[in-house]
Amino acid sequence: MATLTVPEAPIRTAPAKAPVDPRHRAFTVLCVVVLVVFAALWLVPMVWAVDTSIRPESEITTAPATWWTSHPTLDAYRQVLSAGRMPVWYLNSFLVALLTAVFAVVVCSMAGFAVARVRFRGRRIVTGLVLAGLLIPPQTLIMPQFQEFAGLHLLNTYWALILPSVPTSVAVFVFASFFAGLPGELAESARIDGAGWFRVYSRIFLPLCRPAASAVFIFTFVWSWNNFLWPLLTMTSTEVMTIPVGLNVVQDSYGIRYAQVMASAVLGALPLFAVFLVVQRRIVEGIANTGIK
Amino acid sequence: MSATAAAPPTGALPGVRDTPRGAGTIGQTRAGFGLLTPFLVLYLAFLIGPALYGLLMSFFDGSSVRSGLGPFAGFGNYTEALTSSDFWSSMWHTVLFTLLTTPPLVLVALALAMLTDRIRRGRWFFRLVFFAPYVMPVTCVGLVFTWMYVPQTGLFATWLDALGLPAPAWLADPNWAMIAVALMTVWWTIGFNFVLYLAGLQDIPRELYEAAAVDGAGPGAQWRRITVPLLSRTTALVTMLQTIASLKVFDQIYLLTVGGPNYSTRPVIEYIYDVGFTDFRTGYGAAASMLYFVVILAVSAVWFAISRRRA
């Protein structure tokens, strides 16, 4: 695919009106070449991981840097999936990420609606309080949070991973700015018809906020799936580990069996890769519109 | 670009400003807080509460092996951290990582976005290639790069060997370990900045380039006079987000080097993790967390002031 674009691109990018300046054309070719080189560099680690994972273990240690194998095998994948805890970790990661994302959408959209649409006393104070959350890096809270969850006897449970990740200030502001952009008559006419505020939120505004909701859902899901430090602290039993934390123990147990280590890495990356392929556009739009990092 | 992180969110919410005095009826107040309750309960319980408790902890000599706050320490923990060479070296490693990663993650992302923006066909392919690593869990990226950094048999060692260059012992050499971590981070996270820049480039009206071309401006002049100035807001945003993200580094370093060799790459968060969870000194760890929080806050404030003046 990449090599196909090389000869075509210069013709396509040449301005249609002006006569083609040969220097301009040469410059465009140079740009495409540089881009293709970088793309190749970015593909190397991914291709290399897959390549290693399908080679027999004996070949990896004898000829580590050859790319082609005459005996491709899926043994490493079979072993990882049958002997390891990978399936359990998949389930854990999926449940935790799904519940976190669902709760975040519900809880933060309600809060965003209140902040943007309901004129209640104390709104400025609440907005300031939510704003303060943007400034607190969660990494500085690991010790008090750990003591809190130890005190609540929630370590090694899904709740330890879900609860702190649901109330995020960024998500509230994403919803609030979306709701603030909708026409005010929507709420007013419903209020005149006698609908309660919760009804206005759930029947009118929530169904309209799909762009904001999908951005918050996708980002919370991906972030939760990939979260490492907090699950590393709170998930010490291999039964409840998520993929990133579980894979951290894989390396130690497999030692230098690189085919299995790489098969685990590929399997760990695969689900989000698939999600990304499906919702690529939404992810890209979400970043462009919100700059969530 | 409506970037929540860059624009002050209160200003970005037209609804918040125009509250007439006394507009809040009892019904609205009840509805407002009713809708906010689930968020506020979780937010106060798991974010604001721990933040305040962490501040309190930092003034006591707490230990995770016994319950309670422990004996009162005053500013003892803070003086100890500020005079500890281990704390300062971990602070330096965090700053060094930020200095090593932020410039390439901003400049290379800009360059790749401009090149991708120039081509007409296959844009989706480059967006896919550069962004895909960003959705991979850090542990997977760590496993792959550890394998590539293996001395003698790893991919990088073989490449350098083929070029006739001496291959460093990447992760085992104190001079190279941080560079190795930085390289992996650039590969892993560049897609995010790349996408922000692509969006910024697409916001520039094409007519500007066409008008400039009619006036005889070449690609170089167009780049200098149109692209760069109109991207300055995006650049400010990308640089701020990147600086703060880099200052929070822990995962990559923990996975690749565990802070080694000989603590030469240990970042602040790992220092906090070590004193709090390995040495069980929670009070001291909390004080180190607070000092680190102040640094993040100061950097955010500086960036906020700069982007505000520009906008």
From TrEMBL, chain A:
Transmembrane domains' residue ranges: 27-48, 89-113, 125-146, 158-183, 204-225, 258-279
Coiled-coil residue spans: none
A UniProt-annotated Pfam family: BPD_transp_1
Compartment(s) where it occurs, according to its Swiss-Prot or TrEMBL record: Cell membrane
Family matches, as InterPro entries: MetI-like, MetI-like_sf
Listed GO biological process terms: transmembrane transport
GO CC annotation terms, alphabetical: plasma membrane
Keyword RNA-binding in record: no
Membrane topology value: Multi-pass membrane protein
Protein keywords: Cell membrane, Membrane, Transmembrane, Transmembrane helix, Transport
Record-annotated ABC transmembrane type-1 domain positions: 90-279
Keyword Transmembrane helix found: yes
Family, per entry: Belongs to the binding-protein-dependent transport system permease family.
Name of the protein described by the UniProt record: Sugar ABC transporter permease
Originating organism: Actinocatenispora thailandica
Automatic annotation (TrEMBL), chain B:
Record keywords, A-Z: Cell membrane, Membrane, Transmembrane, Transmembrane helix, Transport
Stored InterPro entries: MetI-like, MetI-like_sf, UgpAE/MalFG_permease
Membrane spanning residue stretches: 40-60, 91-116, 128-150, 176-199, 230-250, 284-306
GO cellular component: plasma membrane
Positions of the UniProt region annotated as Disordered: 1-21
One Pfam family of this chain: BPD_transp_1
Membrane disposition: Multi-pass membrane protein
Top-level lineage group: Bacteria
Location of this chain's protein in the cell: Cell membrane
Ranges of residues in domain ABC transmembrane type-1: 91-303
Biased composition (Low complexity): 1-15
GO annotation, biological process: transmembrane transport
Chief location: membrane
Similarity section: Belongs to the binding-protein-dependent transport system permease family.
Family matches, as PANTHER family: BLL4140 PROTEIN, DIACETYLCHITOBIOSE UPTAKE SYSTEM PERMEASE PROTEIN DASB
Record's protein name: Sugar ABC transporter permease
Organism: Actinocatenispora thailandica
